[in-house]
Amino acid sequence: MNLSDLRQLTTLQFDECRERAIKRVQRHLGERPTRARFEKELGRLWTILDVLALIVFLAALFISSIHIVTHMGALSARDYDTLNQATSGTVTTRDFYVASHQWAYIPLAEAAMILFLVMFGTFRDGWRRWVFLSLALLSVAFVLVANFSSGLGILESSLAPAFTIGIGLKLEHLIIQHMKRRREVTERYLEALAIWEAATNDATEHPNYRPYLMNELWAALMKPKTNQWAIEAQPGFKRAAVERELSRENWTEGAAEPVAMIEAPASEEVELERVAVPFGNTAPEPGGPESMLMMPSVNGHGIAVTSQQ
Known about the structure:
By secondary structure, this protein is mainly α. 61% of the residues lie in helices and 3% in strands. The chain has three domains: 3-28 and 208-250; 40-198, no CATH class; 272-309, no CATH class. It has a two-stranded antiparallel sheet with strand order 1-2. The radius of gyration is 47 Å and the shape is rod-shaped.
């Protein structure tokens, strides 16, 4: 097979192929992408084991919370007796002071532990990562102290905080995976949206435009009977034939800037040497140096001419 034997398309045929490729892009472009479509493509992070872990976590959290309430109740009640309050304005009662410490310390310890672990897993670099880890360890230490102060045995006191911390780590892992997945969905959604908007404004910017155009060009090349001998051609020959058609449109790409017209320098003016011709017998002799006049030549140089008397 010889590429030179393949009859090329006319300009009108090439334009028709281009229009068909644009219509194919617009037809397959569809509606504006939505974020929900990308979220549906991903499976659920939660499994049946996570449901069981959640049940155990709630039970351990309930027991640990009771120990925190008891521990903080004893400390805050003892501290209220030595508390110096103002006699006017907002005065905190004993019950409110004790109850506030009892119930506020539950999320302050349990939820804060999971929160700082999540932030520790989210930040990969920088000093903030280690600050979050330190705060998470501080919350863990408080939960352990509150449970050990309950007066139960060591095993009984450590069981609830151990399960809370262990399953809390699993919950922290799920939260991080969920955040990572949302970030990936956002990136894919924004990429698809950018392609859709660019293709809406100009279909030739869509990634599928060039393959569509190449298919249309090859189909048009095979329509004449004189070219049908190449129907079963190899992919390399097909690509070369189509690239030859595309080169007619792309030959202007990267063209050099038009060369500016360079004006020829103006010729230097030749100053003629003016020779004064005296009167009387003082006139120069014929052929003498005084009778030589400078005349301009074509190339700008002077030519000596003898003056005639």
